[in-house]
Amino acid sequence: MTDYSALLAGYTGFEKGLDVSNPATGASLGTVKDWSEEEVTSAIADAAETFKEWSQRTAKDRAAVLRRWFNLINENAEALAHIITAECGKPLAEARGEVAYGASFVEWFAEEGKRIYGDIVPTHATDKRIIVMKQAIGVVSAITPWNFPVAMITRKVAPAIAAGCTALIKPAEATPLSAYALEKLAIEAGMPKGVFTVVSTTDPAGIGKILTTHPTIRKISFTGSTAVGKLLLAQGAGTVKKASMELGGNAPFIVFDDADIDAAVAGAMVSKYRNAGQTCVCANRFFVQEGVYDEFVEKFTAAIKGLKVGDGAVDGTTVGPLINEAAVDKVAGLVDSAKKEGATVTLGGNRHDAGPNFFEPTVLTGVTSDMEIASSEIFGPIAPIFKFKDEDDVVRQANDTPYGLCAYFYSHNLGRVWRVAEGLEYGMVGINEGIISTELAPFGGVKESGLGREGSRYGIDDYVEIKYCLMGGI
Ligand code: NAD
């Protein structure tokens, strides 16, 4: 067990505050500060003050600080991974992957900040010039979920900070420790006070209201459920704040008759069972064509039987706990209603004896689109499998949801690959791939899955304003 206490020195040990516990064991991990409304308001003022200085630095200066932060995250990767596993439950190997993935955004945007180019537009009059510049948007508030407690923060704040913004980060109640560890490393990297400030709270609605309505905040960046995203958008509307929203999903995973079934099973395993099924891009509905249905179900079920459920800190664990008992109750309820509606449990289906926050990896067959589970974001280790006849029908079913984050399909028919990729109403599509996220590509959804994109060269656009200047008298 790697000792991570140095990364949290000064951040835990509060007598009264937000208690953090390990979802696998129930063990207490410490108590962090419960920020008051006055303290958050004062932190917003600090961020605004720092913005004046930070936004005036050269992009190269800011990049140097971000690069030091990136190096420090890597040097402390093992400790950070242990913090993630302790507070969020995912297996250590996945937590290590998350740290590398989270750090990759810091490295990418350190460089991308140097390429926020403006334009000189051809003029409409010979004595005038048209200039377009891009400027940092101002103070940003970032509200993040518990399922990727490091990466969901860096994916937002790295572009913000690289562009010259300053940020307040409100992590989920379950996972403030990763956020504070990142803050500690940011300070060590040379970020001035007010550039990256974590505000943990037992009152997300109250503090969230300040972070979405305070006139100094110019932009909200949120990752979480669609329901909360809608509320925050409405709150931000009063002061017309810009907003990036990374919301829920209901990903279809389609296997056509012409697919490589072994590859589809491998893709299904990583897409479904990463983080015990608790990712926004997890396959949520498996559509398998009639001709390969039996083969896919048999091979997928055999692979799932090989998963090892338990404490993510224990060697060999591949599926950790769900985040809390409420999440287990929700998943158990979805399985029960699917059974009542006529689905068959062909594997699992029950709470797991590893502890109150565990649920068995489960396969449901005979699932149809009218069942409750078909329209719910499962966020757990349940694989509902639907049988389909033809391409048009499956694309229609796949799109029959208000969500539009990520879709997957497996096929080796070239024409079908184009048709289906174009027909799916999703922001991201994995074609013969079950895991698609990288800092190099634009991550984000359409419909009720969100607004804006994170990562890639597009990711920095959300943190700059476009200013047009017309210069006359030339
Ligand atoms: P959640 O919406 O309950 O919470 C997310 C964050 O919002 C937390 O920090 C929480 O404290 C805060 N929050 C809750 N109520 C609030 C309020 N009234 N005002 C201000 N803040 C409030 O979501 P969750 O359960 O933490 O995360 C799971 C959800 O996140 C899923 O729907 C998942 O799909 C989504 N998610 C999306 C992406 C993406 O990139 N699209 C990535 C990860 C998770």
TrEMBL record:
Keywords (alphabetical) are: Oxidoreductase
The protein's matches in InterPro entries, at most eight in alphabetical order, are given as: Ald_DH/histidinol_DH, Ald_DH_C, Ald_DH_CS_CYS, Ald_DH_CS_GLU, Ald_DH_N, Aldehyde_DH_dom, Aldehyde_DH_Superfamily, Succ_semiAld_DH
Any signal peptide, and if so, which residues? Answer: none
What GO terms are given for molecular function?
Answer: succinate-semialdehyde dehydrogenase (NAD+) activity
| PROSITE patterns per record | ALDEHYDE_DEHYDR_CYS, ALDEHYDE_DEHYDR_GLU
GO biological process, any: gamma-aminobutyric acid catabolic process
Can the keyword Oxidoreductase be found in this entry's annotation? yes
**Record domain Aldehyde dehydrogenase: where:** 16-468
Residue numbers annotated as active site: E246
Query: Transmembrane residues, as ranges?
Result: none
The record's annotation in PANTHER family points to: SUCCINATE-SEMIALDEHYDE DEHYDROGENASE, MITOCHONDRIAL
Q: Which family does it belong to?
A: Belongs to the aldehyde dehydrogenase family.
Name of the featured protein: NAD-dependent succinate-semialdehyde dehydrogenase
